[in-house]
Amino acid sequence: MNFRQTLTHGFWRDLPPFRLVLGLCPALAVTAAAENGLGMGLAVTFVLIFSNMFISLLRRVIPDKVRIASFIVVIATLVVLVELVMKAYFFPLSQQLGIYIPLIVVNCIILGRAEAFASRNPVHLSMADGLSVGLGFTMSLTLVGSIREILGAGTWFGLAVFSEGFEAFSFMVKAPGAFLCLGLMLGLMNAWSRRRGEIFIQT
Amino acid sequence: MYTEAPTTKFNVANSPHWHDGSSLSGIQQAWLLALLPAIIASTCYFGFAALRVVALAVAASVVAEVTWNALVANRDHATNFSSVTLGVLLAFLLPVGAEWWLVLVGSFLTVIIGKKLYGGWGAYPVHPVALGYAILVVSWPSRLDYTASLVAQTWSVTMVEPMRLVRTLGASAEASFGFTDLVLGRQVGGVGNALVLWLLLGGLFLLLIREIPWQIPVGGILGVLACAWLLGLINPEGTATPVFHLLAGSTVLMVFFLAPEHTTSPVNPWPMFLYGLLMGILLVLIRTFSNHSDGAIFAVLLANLCSPLLDRITPPVVGREVQDVA
Q: Cβ atoms within 10 A of the Cβ of B126, count?
Protein backbone atom coordinates (compact mmCIF):
# COMPACT_ATOMS: atom_id res chain seq x y z
CA MET A 1 0.00 0.00 0.00
CA ASN A 2 1.29 3.45 -0.82
CA PHE A 3 0.89 6.46 1.48
CA ARG A 4 -2.42 7.65 0.04
CA GLN A 5 -4.02 4.22 0.19
CA THR A 6 -2.82 3.83 3.76
CA LEU A 7 -4.32 7.16 4.66
CA THR A 8 -7.77 6.30 3.26
CA HIS A 9 -8.22 2.55 3.67
CA GLY A 10 -9.77 2.94 7.14
CA PHE A 11 -12.72 4.91 5.81
CA TRP A 12 -14.27 2.20 3.69
CA ARG A 13 -12.11 -0.74 2.66
CA ASP A 14 -11.02 -1.62 6.20
CA LEU A 15 -13.62 0.40 8.08
CA PRO A 16 -13.74 -0.75 11.69
CA PRO A 17 -15.78 -2.27 13.20
CA PHE A 18 -17.77 -3.23 10.10
CA ARG A 19 -15.05 -4.42 7.73
CA LEU A 20 -12.39 -5.44 10.19
CA VAL A 21 -15.07 -6.85 12.53
CA LEU A 22 -12.73 -5.90 15.35
CA GLY A 23 -13.46 -3.62 18.30
CA LEU A 24 -17.04 -4.79 18.60
CA CYS A 25 -17.02 -4.62 22.39
CA PRO A 26 -16.78 -0.79 22.64
CA ALA A 27 -18.93 -0.46 19.50
CA LEU A 28 -21.74 -2.25 21.32
CA ALA A 29 -21.11 -0.97 24.81
CA VAL A 30 -20.61 2.78 24.59
CA THR A 31 -22.77 3.77 21.63
CA ALA A 32 -25.98 4.47 23.54
CA ALA A 33 -25.33 8.16 22.78
CA ALA A 34 -23.55 9.88 19.89
CA GLU A 35 -21.33 11.85 22.26
CA ASN A 36 -20.04 8.71 23.95
CA GLY A 37 -19.29 7.14 20.57
CA LEU A 38 -17.35 10.22 19.46
CA GLY A 39 -15.37 10.38 22.70
CA MET A 40 -14.53 6.71 22.61
CA GLY A 41 -13.53 6.92 18.95
CA LEU A 42 -11.21 9.88 19.53
CA ALA A 43 -9.59 8.17 22.51
CA VAL A 44 -8.97 5.07 20.41
CA THR A 45 -7.62 7.19 17.54
CA PHE A 46 -5.09 8.85 19.81
CA VAL A 47 -3.91 5.56 21.23
CA LEU A 48 -3.82 3.98 17.80
CA ILE A 49 -1.67 6.69 16.16
CA PHE A 50 0.94 6.70 18.89
CA SER A 51 0.97 2.97 19.57
CA ASN A 52 1.56 2.44 15.85
CA MET A 53 4.31 5.02 15.93
CA PHE A 54 6.18 3.52 18.89
CA ILE A 55 5.75 -0.04 17.76
CA SER A 56 6.95 0.86 14.28
CA LEU A 57 10.00 2.59 15.74
CA LEU A 58 10.75 -0.38 17.96
CA ARG A 59 9.93 -3.06 15.42
CA ARG A 60 13.56 -4.11 14.98
CA VAL A 61 14.22 -4.08 18.75
CA ILE A 62 11.21 -6.10 19.96
CA PRO A 63 11.98 -9.84 19.99
CA ASP A 64 9.48 -11.88 18.05
CA LYS A 65 8.60 -14.23 20.91
CA VAL A 66 7.48 -11.53 23.35
CA ARG A 67 6.06 -9.08 20.84
CA ILE A 68 2.47 -9.20 22.11
CA ALA A 69 3.57 -8.45 25.67
CA SER A 70 5.72 -5.60 24.40
CA PHE A 71 2.84 -4.17 22.36
CA ILE A 72 0.63 -4.29 25.43
CA VAL A 73 3.18 -2.33 27.46
CA VAL A 74 3.25 0.41 24.82
CA ILE A 75 -0.53 0.47 24.46
CA ALA A 76 -1.20 0.41 28.20
CA THR A 77 1.10 3.39 28.73
CA LEU A 78 -0.83 5.41 26.16
CA VAL A 79 -4.20 4.32 27.54
CA VAL A 80 -3.25 5.42 31.05
CA LEU A 81 -2.29 8.77 29.52
CA VAL A 82 -5.69 9.08 27.82
CA GLU A 83 -7.52 8.02 30.96
CA LEU A 84 -5.79 10.61 33.14
CA VAL A 85 -6.34 13.40 30.58
CA MET A 86 -10.02 12.46 30.30
CA LYS A 87 -10.48 12.44 34.06
CA ALA A 88 -8.80 15.83 34.28
CA TYR A 89 -10.51 17.67 31.43
CA PHE A 90 -13.59 15.66 30.33
CA PHE A 91 -14.84 14.31 33.63
CA PRO A 92 -18.53 13.74 32.68
CA LEU A 93 -17.52 11.85 29.54
CA SER A 94 -15.05 9.72 31.46
CA GLN A 95 -17.80 8.88 33.94
CA GLN A 96 -20.03 7.84 31.03
CA LEU A 97 -17.40 5.65 29.37
CA GLY A 98 -16.34 4.16 32.70
CA ILE A 99 -14.49 0.86 32.45
CA TYR A 100 -14.34 1.00 28.65
CA ILE A 101 -11.50 3.55 28.67
CA PRO A 102 -9.05 1.23 30.52
CA LEU A 103 -10.33 -1.58 28.35
CA ILE A 104 -8.86 0.13 25.25
CA VAL A 105 -5.68 -1.70 26.28
CA VAL A 106 -7.17 -4.96 25.05
CA ASN A 107 -9.04 -3.41 22.13
CA CYS A 108 -8.39 -5.80 19.28
CA ILE A 109 -8.21 -3.04 16.66
CA ILE A 110 -5.13 -1.55 18.29
CA LEU A 111 -3.44 -4.89 18.82
CA GLY A 112 -4.49 -5.95 15.33
CA ARG A 113 -3.00 -2.87 13.64
CA ALA A 114 0.18 -3.23 15.72
CA GLU A 115 0.56 -6.86 14.72
CA ALA A 116 -0.59 -6.60 11.10
CA PHE A 117 0.76 -3.20 10.10
CA ALA A 118 2.99 -1.27 12.49
CA SER A 119 5.36 -4.14 13.23
CA ARG A 120 6.32 -4.46 9.56
CA ASN A 121 6.03 -0.94 8.12
CA PRO A 122 7.99 2.33 8.47
CA VAL A 123 6.93 5.03 10.91
CA HIS A 124 5.17 7.46 8.57
CA LEU A 125 3.00 4.72 7.06
CA SER A 126 2.15 3.30 10.48
CA MET A 127 1.03 6.66 11.81
CA ALA A 128 -1.07 7.24 8.69
CA ASP A 129 -2.62 3.82 9.19
CA GLY A 130 -3.39 4.60 12.82
CA LEU A 131 -4.99 7.91 11.85
CA SER A 132 -7.05 6.35 9.09
CA VAL A 133 -8.33 3.34 11.04
CA GLY A 134 -8.87 5.46 14.16
CA LEU A 135 -10.92 8.08 12.33
CA GLY A 136 -12.89 5.33 10.60
CA PHE A 137 -13.66 3.85 13.98
CA THR A 138 -14.68 7.27 15.30
CA MET A 139 -17.01 7.76 12.33
CA SER A 140 -18.62 4.36 12.79
CA LEU A 141 -19.12 4.75 16.53
CA THR A 142 -20.56 8.24 16.10
CA LEU A 143 -22.93 6.98 13.41
CA VAL A 144 -24.10 3.99 15.46
CA GLY A 145 -24.41 6.23 18.51
CA SER A 146 -26.39 8.81 16.53
CA ILE A 147 -28.87 6.25 15.20
CA ARG A 148 -29.36 4.70 18.62
CA GLU A 149 -29.65 8.03 20.40
CA ILE A 150 -32.04 9.60 17.88
CA LEU A 151 -34.38 6.60 17.85
CA GLY A 152 -33.94 5.50 21.42
CA ALA A 153 -33.94 8.81 23.24
CA GLY A 154 -35.13 11.34 20.64
CA THR A 155 -32.00 13.45 21.04
CA TRP A 156 -28.74 13.98 19.13
CA PHE A 157 -25.66 15.03 21.10
CA GLY A 158 -28.13 15.83 23.87
CA LEU A 159 -30.32 18.12 21.76
CA ALA A 160 -33.96 17.22 21.22
CA VAL A 161 -34.67 16.13 17.65
CA PHE A 162 -38.38 15.41 17.74
CA SER A 163 -41.34 17.36 19.05
CA GLU A 164 -42.96 16.71 22.43
CA GLY A 165 -45.27 13.95 21.17
CA PHE A 166 -42.41 11.59 20.32
CA GLU A 167 -42.26 8.51 22.49
CA ALA A 168 -38.72 7.18 22.46
CA PHE A 169 -38.07 3.72 21.05
CA SER A 170 -36.04 2.91 24.14
CA PHE A 171 -35.18 -0.59 22.91
CA MET A 172 -32.47 1.04 20.79
CA VAL A 173 -30.50 2.47 23.72
CA LYS A 174 -30.57 -0.86 25.54
CA ALA A 175 -28.03 -3.61 24.91
CA PRO A 176 -30.06 -5.67 22.40
CA GLY A 177 -30.67 -2.51 20.36
CA ALA A 178 -26.91 -2.20 19.88
CA PHE A 179 -26.73 -5.67 18.37
CA LEU A 180 -29.69 -4.96 16.12
CA CYS A 181 -28.30 -1.62 14.93
CA LEU A 182 -24.79 -2.94 14.33
CA GLY A 183 -26.08 -6.03 12.54
CA LEU A 184 -28.41 -4.06 10.28
CA MET A 185 -25.65 -1.61 9.36
CA LEU A 186 -23.22 -4.43 8.63
CA GLY A 187 -25.85 -6.12 6.47
CA LEU A 188 -26.62 -2.92 4.56
CA MET A 189 -22.93 -2.28 3.99
CA ASN A 190 -22.36 -5.80 2.69
CA ALA A 191 -25.40 -5.56 0.41
CA TRP A 192 -24.11 -2.27 -1.01
CA SER A 193 -20.62 -3.67 -1.57
CA ARG A 194 -21.98 -6.78 -3.20
CA ARG A 195 -24.04 -4.67 -5.57
CA ARG A 196 -20.92 -2.72 -6.56
CA GLY A 197 -18.96 -5.93 -7.02
CA GLU A 198 -16.39 -5.11 -4.35
CA ILE A 199 -14.41 -7.91 -2.78
CA PHE A 200 -15.03 -7.26 0.87
CA ILE A 201 -14.60 -10.55 2.72
CA GLN A 202 -11.07 -10.72 4.03
CA THR A 203 -9.22 -13.80 2.95
CA MET B 1 -30.72 -55.05 -39.35
CA TYR B 2 -30.99 -52.00 -37.15
CA THR B 3 -34.39 -51.19 -35.69
CA GLU B 4 -35.00 -48.11 -33.74
CA ALA B 5 -35.74 -48.78 -30.08
CA PRO B 6 -39.17 -47.68 -28.92
CA THR B 7 -38.77 -44.29 -27.30
CA THR B 8 -39.34 -44.49 -23.60
CA LYS B 9 -39.19 -41.31 -21.62
CA PHE B 10 -37.84 -41.46 -18.09
CA ASN B 11 -38.65 -38.60 -15.82
CA VAL B 12 -35.86 -38.05 -13.35
CA ALA B 13 -36.88 -36.13 -10.25
CA ASN B 14 -36.02 -35.86 -6.59
CA SER B 15 -38.31 -37.19 -3.89
CA PRO B 16 -41.04 -36.65 -2.80
CA HIS B 17 -42.72 -38.31 -5.78
CA TRP B 18 -46.17 -38.21 -4.28
CA HIS B 19 -47.85 -35.18 -2.80
CA ASP B 20 -50.96 -35.07 -0.66
CA GLY B 21 -52.00 -31.68 -1.95
CA SER B 22 -51.21 -29.73 1.20
CA SER B 23 -49.66 -26.34 0.66
CA LEU B 24 -47.98 -23.58 2.59
CA SER B 25 -50.99 -21.34 2.23
CA GLY B 26 -53.24 -24.24 3.27
CA ILE B 27 -51.32 -24.60 6.54
CA GLN B 28 -51.65 -20.92 7.31
CA GLN B 29 -55.33 -20.88 6.36
CA ALA B 30 -55.97 -23.69 8.84
CA TRP B 31 -54.28 -21.60 11.52
CA LEU B 32 -56.35 -18.57 10.56
CA LEU B 33 -59.52 -20.64 10.74
CA ALA B 34 -58.46 -21.78 14.21
CA LEU B 35 -57.94 -18.17 15.25
CA LEU B 36 -61.34 -17.10 13.91
CA PRO B 37 -63.46 -17.99 17.01
CA ALA B 38 -61.22 -15.85 19.16
CA ILE B 39 -61.41 -12.94 16.71
CA ILE B 40 -65.21 -13.12 16.73
CA ALA B 41 -65.37 -13.45 20.52
CA SER B 42 -62.99 -10.53 20.90
CA THR B 43 -65.18 -8.36 18.66
CA CYS B 44 -68.24 -9.34 20.72
CA TYR B 45 -66.51 -8.52 24.00
CA PHE B 46 -64.58 -5.37 23.12
CA GLY B 47 -66.45 -4.12 20.06
CA PHE B 48 -64.85 -2.86 16.92
CA ALA B 49 -61.88 -1.46 18.83
CA ALA B 50 -60.52 -5.01 18.98
CA LEU B 51 -61.25 -5.71 15.34
CA ARG B 52 -59.49 -2.46 14.44
CA VAL B 53 -56.26 -3.68 16.04
CA VAL B 54 -56.47 -7.04 14.25
CA ALA B 55 -57.21 -5.43 10.87
CA LEU B 56 -54.46 -2.88 11.22
CA ALA B 57 -51.89 -5.45 12.31
CA VAL B 58 -52.76 -7.80 9.46
CA ALA B 59 -52.73 -5.02 6.87
CA ALA B 60 -49.44 -3.62 8.13
CA SER B 61 -47.83 -7.07 8.20
CA VAL B 62 -48.88 -7.87 4.65
CA VAL B 63 -47.77 -4.45 3.38
CA ALA B 64 -44.40 -4.88 5.12
CA GLU B 65 -43.99 -8.31 3.56
CA VAL B 66 -44.95 -7.18 0.05
CA THR B 67 -42.66 -4.15 0.27
CA TRP B 68 -39.72 -6.29 1.39
CA ASN B 69 -40.36 -8.80 -1.38
CA ALA B 70 -40.35 -5.99 -3.93
CA LEU B 71 -36.95 -4.86 -2.67
CA VAL B 72 -35.24 -8.18 -1.96
CA ALA B 73 -35.66 -11.28 -4.07
CA ASN B 74 -36.70 -14.23 -1.90
CA ARG B 75 -38.95 -17.26 -2.00
CA ASP B 76 -41.11 -16.40 1.01
CA HIS B 77 -44.01 -14.89 -0.91
CA ALA B 78 -46.86 -12.96 0.64
CA THR B 79 -49.31 -15.42 -0.94
CA ASN B 80 -48.40 -18.08 1.63
CA PHE B 81 -50.46 -16.16 4.22
CA SER B 82 -47.79 -16.43 6.89
CA SER B 83 -47.69 -12.68 7.47
CA VAL B 84 -51.48 -12.68 7.94
CA THR B 85 -51.21 -15.23 10.74
CA LEU B 86 -48.35 -13.29 12.30
CA GLY B 87 -50.43 -10.12 12.17
CA VAL B 88 -53.39 -11.76 13.89
CA LEU B 89 -51.21 -13.31 16.60
CA LEU B 90 -49.46 -10.01 17.23
CA ALA B 91 -52.80 -8.19 17.45
CA PHE B 92 -54.01 -10.76 20.01
CA LEU B 93 -51.20 -9.74 22.35
CA LEU B 94 -51.69 -5.99 21.98
CA PRO B 95 -54.10 -4.08 24.21
CA VAL B 96 -57.51 -3.23 22.79
CA GLY B 97 -56.79 0.48 22.69
CA ALA B 98 -53.35 0.14 21.12
CA GLU B 99 -52.22 3.28 19.29
CA TRP B 100 -51.96 2.95 15.52
CA TRP B 101 -48.23 3.64 15.51
CA LEU B 102 -47.69 0.94 18.13
CA VAL B 103 -49.46 -1.59 15.91
CA LEU B 104 -47.52 -0.46 12.84
CA VAL B 105 -44.14 -0.59 14.59
CA GLY B 106 -45.00 -3.99 16.08
CA SER B 107 -46.00 -5.41 12.70
CA PHE B 108 -42.86 -4.04 11.09
CA LEU B 109 -40.65 -5.54 13.79
CA THR B 110 -42.49 -8.86 13.59
CA VAL B 111 -42.41 -9.26 9.83
CA ILE B 112 -39.17 -7.53 8.83
CA ILE B 113 -36.87 -8.07 11.82
CA GLY B 114 -38.47 -11.27 13.09
CA LYS B 115 -39.20 -13.02 9.82
CA LYS B 116 -37.74 -11.59 6.62
CA LEU B 117 -34.26 -10.74 7.86
CA TYR B 118 -33.73 -14.35 8.87
CA GLY B 119 -34.89 -15.58 5.47
CA GLY B 120 -38.63 -15.89 5.84
CA TRP B 121 -41.00 -18.56 7.04
CA GLY B 122 -39.02 -21.67 7.85
CA ALA B 123 -35.77 -19.92 8.69
CA TYR B 124 -36.29 -17.83 11.79
CA PRO B 125 -34.90 -19.04 15.14
CA VAL B 126 -37.57 -17.51 17.40
CA HIS B 127 -41.24 -16.82 16.87
CA PRO B 128 -41.45 -13.46 15.05
CA VAL B 129 -44.48 -12.40 17.07
CA ALA B 130 -42.64 -13.11 20.32
CA LEU B 131 -39.67 -11.11 19.06
CA GLY B 132 -41.78 -8.17 17.88
CA TYR B 133 -43.88 -8.06 21.02
CA ALA B 134 -40.83 -8.40 23.29
CA ILE B 135 -39.22 -5.37 21.62
CA LEU B 136 -42.44 -3.41 22.05
CA VAL B 137 -42.76 -4.36 25.69
CA VAL B 138 -39.17 -3.34 26.37
CA SER B 139 -39.66 0.01 24.63
CA TRP B 140 -43.15 1.12 25.65
CA PRO B 141 -44.26 -0.90 28.70
CA SER B 142 -46.84 1.69 29.73
CA ARG B 143 -48.51 1.60 26.30
CA LEU B 144 -49.00 -2.14 26.58
CA ASP B 145 -50.72 -2.01 29.96
CA TYR B 146 -53.91 -4.04 29.42
CA THR B 147 -55.76 -2.62 32.41
CA ALA B 148 -55.08 1.00 31.55
CA SER B 149 -56.15 0.35 28.00
CA LEU B 150 -59.41 -1.31 29.01
CA VAL B 151 -60.32 1.40 31.51
CA ALA B 152 -60.33 3.90 28.66
CA GLN B 153 -62.69 1.71 26.60
CA THR B 154 -66.35 0.92 26.96
CA TRP B 155 -66.96 -2.78 26.79
CA SER B 156 -70.01 -4.96 27.11
CA VAL B 157 -68.89 -7.49 29.72
CA THR B 158 -67.49 -7.08 33.20
CA MET B 159 -63.93 -8.20 33.48
CA VAL B 160 -61.89 -9.67 36.25
CA GLU B 161 -58.26 -8.81 36.56
CA PRO B 162 -56.55 -12.04 37.59
CA MET B 163 -52.93 -11.47 36.70
CA ARG B 164 -52.48 -8.25 38.60
CA LEU B 165 -54.56 -9.28 41.64
CA VAL B 166 -52.62 -12.47 42.15
CA ARG B 167 -49.36 -10.58 41.95
CA THR B 168 -50.39 -8.04 44.54
CA LEU B 169 -52.55 -10.11 46.87
CA GLY B 170 -51.23 -13.64 46.44
CA ALA B 171 -53.36 -16.74 46.39
CA SER B 172 -56.15 -15.15 48.43
CA ALA B 173 -57.08 -13.08 45.38
CA GLU B 174 -58.40 -16.18 43.67
CA ALA B 175 -61.56 -16.07 45.76
CA SER B 176 -62.52 -12.80 44.12
CA PHE B 177 -63.28 -14.24 40.70
CA GLY B 178 -64.95 -17.34 39.34
CA PHE B 179 -63.30 -19.81 37.06
CA THR B 180 -66.21 -19.45 34.64
CA ASP B 181 -65.12 -15.87 34.02
CA LEU B 182 -61.61 -17.03 33.31
CA VAL B 183 -62.73 -19.81 30.98
CA LEU B 184 -65.07 -17.56 29.02
CA GLY B 185 -62.32 -15.02 28.64
CA ARG B 186 -63.96 -12.37 30.77
CA GLN B 187 -60.62 -11.33 32.17
CA VAL B 188 -58.41 -8.35 31.58
CA GLY B 189 -56.11 -9.02 28.69
CA GLY B 190 -55.11 -8.02 25.20
CA VAL B 191 -57.26 -8.25 22.09
CA GLY B 192 -57.28 -12.03 22.10
CA ASN B 193 -54.67 -13.51 24.38
CA ALA B 194 -56.96 -14.34 27.30
CA LEU B 195 -60.06 -15.65 25.48
CA VAL B 196 -59.46 -19.12 26.91
CA LEU B 197 -62.44 -21.10 25.60
CA TRP B 198 -62.38 -19.58 22.12
CA LEU B 199 -58.67 -20.13 21.70
CA LEU B 200 -59.09 -23.65 23.03
CA LEU B 201 -61.68 -24.34 20.32
CA GLY B 202 -59.20 -23.32 17.66
CA GLY B 203 -56.39 -25.25 19.31
CA LEU B 204 -58.44 -28.43 19.46
CA PHE B 205 -59.34 -27.97 15.80
CA LEU B 206 -55.65 -27.76 14.92
CA LEU B 207 -54.98 -30.87 17.00
CA LEU B 208 -57.83 -32.74 15.34
CA ILE B 209 -56.66 -32.06 11.81
CA ARG B 210 -53.11 -32.91 13.02
CA GLU B 211 -51.82 -29.52 12.10
CA ILE B 212 -49.98 -29.29 15.42
CA PRO B 213 -48.47 -32.25 17.28
CA TRP B 214 -50.16 -33.19 20.56
CA GLN B 215 -46.84 -33.42 22.40
CA ILE B 216 -46.28 -29.67 22.58
CA PRO B 217 -49.63 -28.58 24.11
CA VAL B 218 -49.66 -31.57 26.44
CA GLY B 219 -46.10 -30.88 27.52
CA GLY B 220 -46.89 -27.21 28.01
CA ILE B 221 -49.97 -27.85 30.11
CA LEU B 222 -48.16 -30.46 32.21
CA GLY B 223 -45.26 -28.06 32.71
CA VAL B 224 -47.55 -25.28 33.92
CA LEU B 225 -49.47 -27.60 36.25
CA ALA B 226 -46.38 -29.31 37.68
CA CYS B 227 -44.42 -26.12 38.23
CA ALA B 228 -47.35 -24.29 39.82
CA TRP B 229 -48.07 -27.31 42.05
CA LEU B 230 -44.46 -27.52 43.21
CA LEU B 231 -44.32 -23.79 43.92
CA GLY B 232 -47.60 -24.12 45.79
CA LEU B 233 -46.07 -26.78 48.02
CA ILE B 234 -43.22 -24.44 48.90
CA ASN B 235 -45.20 -21.24 49.34
CA PRO B 236 -48.97 -21.83 49.47
CA GLU B 237 -49.73 -18.21 50.43
CA GLY B 238 -47.96 -16.46 47.60
CA THR B 239 -48.65 -18.82 44.70
CA ALA B 240 -51.76 -19.21 42.63
CA THR B 241 -53.23 -22.67 42.06
CA PRO B 242 -52.15 -24.70 39.01
CA VAL B 243 -55.57 -24.38 37.37
CA PHE B 244 -55.41 -20.62 37.74
CA HIS B 245 -52.11 -20.47 35.87
CA LEU B 246 -53.65 -22.55 33.13
CA LEU B 247 -56.67 -20.30 32.65
CA ALA B 248 -55.35 -16.83 33.33
CA GLY B 249 -53.36 -14.71 30.91
CA SER B 250 -51.91 -16.03 27.66
CA THR B 251 -51.26 -19.65 28.70
CA VAL B 252 -53.70 -21.14 26.21
CA LEU B 253 -52.53 -18.89 23.39
CA MET B 254 -49.00 -19.90 24.21
CA VAL B 255 -49.39 -23.68 24.32
CA PHE B 256 -51.70 -23.98 21.30
CA PHE B 257 -50.58 -21.20 18.98
CA LEU B 258 -47.19 -19.74 19.85
CA ALA B 259 -45.38 -22.90 20.97
CA PRO B 260 -46.29 -25.31 18.11
CA GLU B 261 -45.22 -22.87 15.40
CA HIS B 262 -43.67 -25.15 12.79
CA THR B 263 -40.40 -23.32 12.25
CA THR B 264 -39.41 -22.79 15.85
CA SER B 265 -40.51 -26.03 17.50
CA PRO B 266 -38.57 -29.32 17.53
CA VAL B 267 -39.41 -32.07 15.06
CA ASN B 268 -38.92 -35.26 17.06
CA PRO B 269 -41.59 -36.57 19.50
CA TRP B 270 -39.63 -36.49 22.76
CA PRO B 271 -37.97 -33.14 22.07
CA MET B 272 -41.42 -31.73 21.28
CA PHE B 273 -42.73 -32.89 24.64
CA LEU B 274 -39.70 -31.56 26.51
CA TYR B 275 -39.97 -28.28 24.63
CA GLY B 276 -43.58 -27.86 25.74
CA LEU B 277 -42.68 -28.85 29.28
CA LEU B 278 -39.82 -26.34 29.38
CA MET B 279 -42.07 -23.58 28.10
CA GLY B 280 -44.75 -24.29 30.70
CA ILE B 281 -42.23 -24.34 33.54
CA LEU B 282 -40.63 -21.10 32.33
CA LEU B 283 -44.04 -19.44 32.09
CA VAL B 284 -44.90 -20.10 35.73
CA LEU B 285 -41.40 -19.19 36.90
CA ILE B 286 -41.46 -15.88 35.02
CA ARG B 287 -44.93 -15.08 36.30
CA THR B 288 -43.93 -15.81 39.87
CA PHE B 289 -40.44 -14.38 40.12
CA SER B 290 -40.10 -11.60 37.52
CA ASN B 291 -41.48 -8.12 37.06
CA HIS B 292 -43.64 -9.19 34.12
CA SER B 293 -47.14 -10.18 35.13
CA ASP B 294 -47.58 -12.45 32.11
CA GLY B 295 -44.37 -14.09 30.99
CA ALA B 296 -45.71 -16.07 28.03
CA ILE B 297 -43.68 -14.16 25.43
CA PHE B 298 -40.40 -14.57 27.27
CA ALA B 299 -41.11 -18.23 27.92
CA VAL B 300 -41.70 -18.68 24.18
CA LEU B 301 -38.46 -16.87 23.29
CA LEU B 302 -36.36 -18.90 25.72
CA ALA B 303 -37.90 -22.23 24.74
CA ASN B 304 -37.52 -21.40 21.03
CA LEU B 305 -33.81 -20.90 21.56
CA CYS B 306 -33.55 -24.32 23.22
CA SER B 307 -35.42 -26.02 20.39
CA PRO B 308 -32.38 -26.89 18.19
CA LEU B 309 -30.60 -28.29 21.25
CA LEU B 310 -33.62 -30.39 22.19
CA ASP B 311 -33.78 -31.71 18.65
CA ARG B 312 -30.42 -33.38 19.15
CA ILE B 313 -32.28 -35.97 21.23
CA THR B 314 -33.07 -38.32 18.38
CA PRO B 315 -34.74 -41.74 18.37
CA PRO B 316 -32.28 -44.62 18.92
CA VAL B 317 -30.76 -45.92 15.72
CA VAL B 318 -31.87 -49.43 14.86
CA GLY B 319 -29.03 -51.81 14.06
CA ARG B 320 -25.43 -52.14 15.04
CA GLU B 321 -22.62 -49.70 14.55
CA VAL B 322 -19.97 -51.00 12.20
CA GLN B 323 -16.63 -51.12 13.95
CA ASP B 324 -13.92 -49.29 12.12
CA VAL B 325 -11.31 -51.87 11.16
CA ALA B 326 -7.88 -50.37 11.51
A: 20
| Helices A108-116, A67-89: inter-axial angle, 10-degree rounding | 140
Q: Which residue in A has a C-alpha nearest to residue B99's C-alpha? A: A167
Using a CB-CB cut-off of 8 Å, the residues of chain B touching A167 are 140, 143
What percent of chain B is predicted at pLDDT more than 90? 50
- What chain B holds in terms of domains, given with CATH numbers, is 24-150+157-310 (1.10.3430)
The residues, any chain, with a CB within 8 Å of residue B19's CB and separated by 6 or more, are none
Pairing between β-strand A155-156 and β-strand A159-160 as defined by DSSP bridges: antiparallel
Tell me what pLDDT residue B237 has.
75
Do the chains contact at A174 and B113, CB–CB below 8 Å? no
Contact call for A174 and B140, based on CB within 8 A: no
pLDDT digits over A95-125, tens only?
A: 888 888 888 888 888 998 998 889 889 999 9
User: In chain A, which residues touch B (CB < 8 A)?
Assistant: 167-171, 174, 176, 180, 187
How high is the pLDDT of residue B166? Answer: 62
pLDDT at A136 over 90: yes
**CA separation, residue B89 to residues A105, B32, B94, B143, B297 (Å):** 48, 10, 9, 18, 12
Dist. CA B57–CA B67, nearest whole Å: 15
**Residue B155 above 60 pLDDT?**
no
Q: How confident is the model at residue B171 (pLDDT cuts 50, 70, 90)?
A: low
Residue A155: phi, psi to the nearest 5? -130, 160
Rounded Cα distance, B297 and B259, in Å: 10
Do residue B135 and residue A187 have CB atoms under 8 angstroms apart? no
Q: Are A131 and A117 in contact (CB under 8 A)?
A: no
- The number of C-beta contacts closer than 8 angstroms across A and B is 16
The distance of B73 to chain A (nearest Cα, Å) reads 13
Mean pLDDT across B250-269: 92
Q: How far apart are CA A172 and CA A180, in angstroms?
A: 8
CB atoms < 10 A from the CB of B216, how many? 27
Share of residues in chain B with pLDDT > 70 (%): 88
DSSP code for A203: -
